[in-house]
Amino acid sequence: NPNAYSKFTDIKTAIMQSRVIEIDYLNTYNQKSRRKIEPIRLIFKSQAWYLWGFCLEKQDYRTFRISRIKRVEIRDETFDRSKAHVIVESSAETEKKKPYTHIILQFTEEALYRLYDDFDDKWIRDNGDGTYTLEISLPEDEWVYGYIFSFGCFVKVIEPEHIRKIIKDRSERITKFYK
To answer: Quick check: pTM over 0.90?
Structure first.
């Protein structure tokens, strides 16, 4: 979806330039609102992207699901990111307490666009044979297994062996389910 990519890129640009954005947002109750936000960071969790930032209307830090943002406009006004630094640090400390697992995944070309949507170039290696390797440390939980499964036959777990086994076992259970 080119529009989704453009929206995501605009938000990333605004974060890097510390510029206020105006969004049209649809909340979980299908209520539409227009918000001005100081965007701080993008977060990927539960198989979805979220924007975390300071909402100028609510005068509080809020999380917005990217798929529910219907329009993004980067404003001329800038903001001071340093005031969010303390809050970001404390939430980062909480994240660090979760056990992280070093994971190596190999993707086919069909998955490349999603890989670049989800991860920075520095984590992705072109193997020169039509496959790409992602090497990263993530908190190991159901989300990670679901994320791997979301790539279907376009991904293979290289390491660690215990995650290879989990994905293989679940794949076999799915296959049996369809017999």
So the answer is: no
